[in-house]
Amino acid sequence: MSSTLTSTITGSEPASSLLLNGTGTAAQEEEEEPYRYAHLLPVYSKDKYPPLQPFAHVDPGSRALGHANPRAFLDGAGVVELTPWLGTEVRGCNLAALTPDQKDELALEVARRGVVVFRDQQDFIDRGPGFYTEWGRHFGPLHIHPTSGHPEGFPEIHLVYKDKNSKFNTEGITTTVWHSDFSFELQPPGLTTFFLLAQPKTGGDTLYSSQVKNFETLSPVMQGFLRTLKATHSGFDSLRSTKGGALRREPIETVHPVVRRHPVTGDEALYVNKQFTRRIVGMKKEESDLLLNFLYDHIAKSGDHQARIKWEPFSMVLWDNRVTAHSAISDYWQQKARRHGARITPQAERPIPSLASMKMED
Fold first, then answer.
1. Which parts of the sequence are annotated with region: Disordered (predicted)?
2. What CA–CA distance (Å, rounded) separates 291 from 289?
3. What's the CA dihedral at 335, 337, 342, 348 to 10 degrees?
4. Distance between CA atoms of residues 35 and 10, nearest Å
């Protein structure tokens, strides 16, 4: 990456918002301190990326199916299920020390539970972006965000960043935007890793919804109908309106099944989201809007299919984009605090239709 073609967000904030637990002396809170993760602040390159190319994907979770104990990587750890259907919290498992076989087991566990949060992962986080990319490539080719900031020299690491100088969109009645990352790509992300490097004292949680349960609770008649449908997913609106500046890869539109099947678990999951899904193929606009809005409403209101992750220092959250939807919560704007996160986003297979006879365009 050319250093002459990048710009860096700097900015500072009160030291109190940088202290990981919101603790410290009054003297510390009155003075500015160097930011521990300044080397991971976002830059915005003007490099141009070619279109993504198709590839054959073998999900690492499939290899764990043959293990004597596919959950052996959790031996000795404290494991708590956040809800019956979705979400697990783990303490006492160092992700940075996992072997390749254990990473396969991890992929299977995330596929089955949808989202898993690992606490106390400073060892992983402090190893830096080179380690992050090595980690992510175990699960698939790394997706490069076409507009967002990234650490200098590591475009594969997608950064989210807000501080006291950032603007928040407070015009709507809510900040929730349910989505599955980059669902408009031909081969959207699968297992995704995300962690915060700095966070507000409270707020900035992340919501997750089980698209498996969202589908399962519909009537058999509706399920059967949805299995026959395809929908267009588009990146044009969200990428063209980005605040990051340069558009480094042209957006695309792709047709995917409305119900997809996970390649390892076999679970059926809704695969529509309000951020990227635009229209049901073959329907008139009014018909498509009616059905999609019903599904969006179902996803948003089904609290019994959701889990809310409250961030702690050095936490990492892994989720499977194929079977979940998620939304950040931007409720911390009055704190003038820094929220700095990093996402590692491996791509997976082209969505597999739940209906085996469905033919997708080449």
1. 1-31
2. 6
3. 20
4. 10
Provide DSSP, 121-176: -HHHHTT-HHHHHHHHHTTSPBP--SSS-B-TT-TTEEEEEE-TT-----SSS---
Q: 60-353 domain in CATH 3.60.130.10? A: yes
Q: How far is CA 83 from CA 92, 225, 304, in A?
A: 20, 29, 8
Cβ–Cβ under 8 Å, residues 98 and 77: no
Query: What is the tens place of the pLDDT at every residue in 250-270?
Result: 999 999 999 999 999 999 999
Rounded Cα gap, residues 135 and 113, in angstroms: 20
**Residue 88 in 3-state DSSP?**
strand
* Encoded tokens for 259: 């119900």
How far is residue 264's CA from residue 65's CA, in Å, rounded to a whole number? 8
Spatial distance between the Cα atoms of 294 and 77, rounded to a whole number of angstroms: 40
With left for phi above 0 and alpha for psi between -120 and 50, is residue 87 left, alpha or beta? left
Query: Are the C-beta atoms of 329 and 207 separated by less than 8 Å?
Result: yes
The set of residues, in sequence order, having a beta carbon less than 8 Å from that of 325 and lying 6+ positions away, is 178, 179, 180, 208, 209, 211, 214, 273, 299
Q: How many CB atoms lie within 10 A of CB 303?
A: 11
Give tens-digit pLDDT for 127-148. 999 999 999 999 999 999 999 9
